[in-house]
Design goal:
single chain, 201 residues, mainly alpha, Methane Monooxygenase Hydroxylase, Chain G, domain 1, two-stranded antiparallel sheet, 8 helices, 4% strand, globular, membrane, cell inner membrane
């Protein structure tokens, strides 16, 4: 099914809404404890449970409106349900904290697999929007694979060595800023290997 076009602000809201609400809700509940069915749950676990429900709802709405979920969105949804569900079920915040590690490690592994085969899986996703020579795609893919691997390691270090609040800030702002900064610094590469207009057709 072809992806339907929707208002970009609606799409952005559906994609980022759960993350923003997770941050806001955690800020309000981080010092509270909730007793449910005789078990005490921290504000972080309660926030995680709400986050799971919210991302299921927003992903469903996005799929309903566009008829499509990207591989990244689908993998994120699966990992949130799996790792977040384990955190809530076992009342152990470590599982949801490992979700970014698994997500970025998976991305890095897929990109490295393509590189080993002389392919750029990244170009298969972005070539229409960003036409580049094969060599340029391979360089960008190698850089992004290493970058994703670095993010996976960084997430492990942050959640294992720092507080839960520090990890929430890192996940909400640090990872987002890092991704934005990475692509901003690749401008010269994209310009150098960009295909001339006649080759884009």
């Amino acid at each position: 099914m072809a992806e339907k076009k929707i208002n970009p602000f609606v799409k952005l809201g559906l994609e980022l809404g759960p993350v923003i609400l997770f941050f806001v809700m955690f800020g309000r509940l981080k010092d509270q404890t909730f007793t449910i069915a005789g078990t005490a749950y921290s504000g972080f676990i309660v926030t995680t449970a709400a986050f799971i429900l919210l991302i299921i709802v927003t992903s469903g709405i996005l799929w309903k409106l566009t008829g499509h979920l990207s591989r990244m969105q689908a993998l994120t949804l699966v990992l949130v349900i799996l790792m977040g569900g384990l955190s809530v079920w076992l009342n152990d915040e470590r599982f949801i904290k490992m979700k970014p590690t698994l997500l970025y490690a998976a991305f890095a592994a897929v990109l490295f697999l393509g590189i080993a085969q002389g392919k750029s899986y990244l170009s298969m996703l972005m070539d229409e929007a960003l036409p580049m020579q094969h060599e340029g795609w391979m360089i960008l893919t190698r850089r992004l694979a290493l970058f994703f691997a670095g993010l996976a390691v960084a997430n492990e270090l942050v959640w294992r060595l720092l507080s839960t609040e520090a990890w929430v800030n890192f996940k909400t702002f640090g990872l987002t800023i890092a991704l934005f900064a990475f692509f901003m610094t690749q401008g010269k590469l994209m310009e150098r290997y960009a295909l001339p207009p006649r080759e884009k057709e």
